[in-house]
Design goal:
The chain is mainly alpha-helical. The protein has four helices and no strands. The longest helix has 17 residues.
């Protein structure tokens, strides 16, 4: 899900950045028990948006988005 959202994003991310965003996405999806495509897409967009706007720390992203 994260990779498809990144393909639509304006700024390219490195493999390490994609991996960090994917870990955050996976963790939040599990904790919040997100199952619908619409919820998954919304979360992916929020993770990418937050990362691209300066929230670069994995823990900070988790706290912000859970």
């Amino acid at each position: 899900m994260i990779r498809s959202q990144i393909a639509d994003a304006q700024t390219a991310l490195s493999d390490e950045e994609v991996a960090l965003c994917q870990r955050v996405f996976d963790h939040i999806s599990s904790v919040r028990q997100i199952t619908t495509d619409a919820e998954r897409e919304d979360l992916a967009q929020r993770v990418i948006h937050s990362y691209q706007h300066g929230v670069k720390d994995e823990g900070a992203l988790l706290r912000l988005l859970i």
